[in-house]
Amino acid sequence: MKLSPIIRLFALLLLALTLSGAVLVFSEQSHERLRDANQRIASSMEAQGLASEVLALVIDAETAQRGFLLTERAEYLEPYVMALPRIDPKLTRLRETTADTPAANRNVNRLAELIGERFSELDASLALYKKSGPRAALELMRTDFGRKSMDRIRAQVDAIQRELRADLIMRYQSWNQDVAFSRLGLAIIAALNVALLVLVCVQARREIMQRERQRRSLVQQRRLLEEQVQARTAQLSELSSNLQRVQEAERAKLSRDIHDELGSILVSARMDISWVKRRVEQLEPGAGDKLARAIRTLDEGVQIKRRIVEDLRPTLLDNLGLVAALAWHVRQACERGGLACHMSLPEEELELPSQVSIALFRVVQEAITNVLRYAKARGVWVTLEQARAGLALIVRDDGVGIPPHAHNDKLSHGIVGMRQRVAALGGEFRVRPAAGGGTIVEAFVPWNGQHAPRRSGADAAPQRISATQQ
User: Fold this and answer.
1) Contact indicator for 164, 101 with CB cutoff of 8 Å
2) Exposure of 326 by Cβ count < 10 A (0-12 exposed, 13-18 middle, 19+ buried)?
3) % helix, strand, coil for the chain, step of 5
4) What are the domain boundaries of the chain?
5) What is the DSSP letter of 373?
6) How far apart are the first and last CA of the chain?
7) What is the pLDDT of residue 9?
8) CA torsion angle for 329, 332, 335, 338 (degrees, to 10)?
9) How far apart are CA 164 and CA 107, in angstroms?
10) d(CA 92, CA 394)
11) Which residue from 462, 461, 422, 459 is spatially nearest to 443, judged by alpha carbons?
């Protein structure tokens, strides 16, 4: 049965890991031996240096003693006095460094005995000097007894150094063998790594080519899906804009019908009832009261009719323009909701296209409605200003603020409607929390300002509204 490339690669990887582990263990053992050999070599070299230093101190002590006997000057004895306290620590350290070399260690012990004997001889010469004078001490010094002692000390130091050099040579040989084994292990690991790298590169190249084919297929599919989504989005956006246009047309028609037909009926009925009231109130006072109440009811109906008409299609928007319609609507809404009203509108009316005017008016109308329903605010700020290449509209309140992600909620039809109205005009729309609490609704609509501004009526559009109104 033929194995798949993945299984073959896995088997090779497992084999390589096993061999690499074995080589790694062997290399680690070699490194341990190398560290041990390095320490032993360092100890051997230190021991040789200590042996030479001990011999030099003994020679200095002997020279100082002879100089004193020849010159009888006390300063010559200073190296002799300082030699023994310096020799003892070095001998102790020398024993420690040669502890792993028994032959050298025995020679160190013998060296310590010989040095002790030599210093006893030197002390005896000094004692003779004090007892019998310099001549007797010099006669003792001229004998070859001291020379023989120093020869035995030098021979013992040479024996120690020979033992240490022999051990050092053996350690070097072991160190070289371990280095050779380590190099062999590294060469084996390097060869395995190269082989694995080649295999992995081949397999990776196949995987990359396959993934690249899949990626290109996915990119093509995603491009097709994006084109379809863009087409559907454009269709839905156009459909939404068309529905809004149809809705505005229906509202305008319904507003005209209510104003023309229902308004005339209510006004005619009020006139007739007023005429009847004047005729019958003298004959029947109770009937006059009833008729007066009917007149008040008709007046309320006329006011309701007027409010419905204005909500459907503000007459000020068609007759006097956007600034006047916004000033009237915001003022009326704030009076009904008990809000402090702050407005900053252009001093002069702007001759805007109908679709721009109605879109901005509906944004303000929906924003004020949301403030009255949900914000629990104390005041509202409405700003309309002509910015660079367009109109900027800002509606802000000081209420509880908008919940997180509410502006992206599919059920937030009011926000979706405002965004769609502004997007249909090529503008930008954003809803965000205010810094000190509340919500800010921002809309920007492109407008080249090619129509010259016209003055609005004095009763319809204020020059600059920024005062607080209740």
Assistant:
1) yes
2) buried
3) 75, 10, 15
4) 5-208, 317-470
5) I
6) 91
7) 65
8) -40
9) 11
10) 93
11) 422
Separation between Cα atoms, residue 165 and residue 167, nearest integer Å? 5
b/e burial code for range 207-229 (CB count within 10 A of at least 16 → b): eeeeeeeeeeeeeeeeeeeeeee
* Choice between 243 and 323, residue whose per-residue pLDDT is larger: 323
Chain centroid to CA 226: how far?
32
Alpha-carbon gap, residue 229 to 236, rounded angstroms: 10
Of 97, 91, 95, which is closest to residue 40 (Cα–Cα)? 97
What percent of the chain stands above pLDDT 70? Answer: 78
β-strands 379-387, 390-397 pairing: antiparallel
List 430's β-bridge partners, or say none. Answer: 442
Span 455-470, mean pLDDT? 34
Dihedral pair phi/psi, residue 59, rounded to 5° = -65, -40
Chain length of the chain: 470
Query: Is the CATH number 3.30.565.10 carried by domain 317-470?
Result: yes
pLDDT tens digits for 131-174?
Answer: 777 776 676 666 666 777 788 888 888 888 888 888 778 877 77
Cα 176 from chain centroid? 51
Distance CA 345, CA 321 (A): 12
| Model pLDDT for residues 225-267, shown as the tens digit of each residue | 888 887 776 666 666 666 656 666 676 667 666 766 666 777 7
CA–CA distance, 248 with 220 (Å, rounded to integer) = 42
Tokens 């367009």: give the residue.
390
Distances (CA, A) of 372 to 365, 378, 437: 11, 10, 16
Looking at this protein, which amino acid is placed at residue 441? V
Q: Which residue has the tokens 């001490």?
A: 137
Please report, for the chain, how many H helices and E strands are present, in that order: 11, 5
Separation of alpha carbons 55 and 60, rounded Å: 9
Joined tokens for residue 441: 């609704």
pTM here is 0.44
pLDDT on residue 426: 87
> In the predicted model, is pLDDT for residue 326 greater than 80?
yes
Max CA pair span of the chain: 177
State residue 362 phi and psi, 5-degree precision: -65, -35
